[in-house]
Amino acid sequence: MKLAIKRREAAVDLYTAILGAFLCVSPWLFAYRDGLAREATLATGAILLAVSLLAVIAFREWEEWINLAIGLWLLAAPFALGFPHHAPAMHVAVGIGAAVTFLALLELWLIHNPDWADGTEPRDQSLRR
Description:
The protein is mainly α. It has helices at residues 10-29, 35-57, 61-80, 88-112, 114-118.
């Protein structure tokens, strides 16, 4: 079965899905010692993976807003849940959170500025220089 990608921005969703999969395996890769960090990372990674794959298959803009919320949660979770400082769980959550937040903002920007990637002039004449 061949998956046909119908939107240019779908590649960003694939990158986000890869980050979600990485989050799912990171407790074993980095031997998380804190149970709460392990559970939070697994749950967040699974949700991120599911939403990103759903966005590839049947895109809706709200999925990108959920990815943005997940990215911001990953940035805040180590502090809100009290992950041990200098633990791998904190570094992974903050790093992946920053990447997911960036990718979600990038995709939202690309959705709302479709002419930018084409190199064509903006449709709205007020945006011309």
